[in-house]
Amino acid sequence: MTRVLLSLAILAVFALCLYGMWHGWRARARRQAETLPAFPRPPAEPGTAKLETTGVYVGTTIGDDWQDRVAVGDIGHRADATLKLTDNGVLVERTGATAMWIPLEDVEGARTARGLAGKVMTADGLLVVRWQLDGQTFDTGFRGDDKDVYEQWVQALGGKE
C-alpha cells in the first residue's frame, strides 16, 4: 500500500510539473502577443528559389538572447522544414505548422551558431538568420540536413560565419 501511495504522489508531482510548464508557455505567448509585432505572412508568389535546403526549424528568438524563444502562435514549435531563399525573402515551409516568411529587406544577415532556443549542438551546427520587424530584432534558427550549404547561405544573406 505504501508503494502505491508513493507512486501516486510521484505521478501527481509529475502532472503538476507538466501543468506548470504548459501554463508558463501560454503566459509567455500572451505577453509576447501584446508586445511583439505580427509576423509577416508568406506571399502568394514568394519568387524564384535561389537556395533551398531541408532540415529542422529550431525556433525564433528575440534579439541577442539565444534562449528567449518566441511563443506566439506556432512560431515556437520545432518542425521539419524546407528553407528557401527567394528573390523576395526567406521562406520556411514547416511540416505541420504555418509557413514563416522573412522579407529580404528585413534580413540583417546570417551566421552559424552553436545553439538557439534551447537547442545546443556542436560548433556551427545551426544556421541563424538575423532579421528585424518594426524595430524588433529576431534570430531564426535552422538545423540543416546538409551543413555544407551553410556557407552559401551566410554569403547570400550577407552575414559572417
Automatic annotation (TrEMBL):
A Pfam match is bPH_11
Q: Where's the PH domain?
A: 36-157
Q: Which organism is it from?
A: Saccharothrix tamanrassetensis
The family database entries (InterPro entries) matched by this protein are listed as:
PH_bac
> What is the protein's name according to its record?
PH domain-containing protein
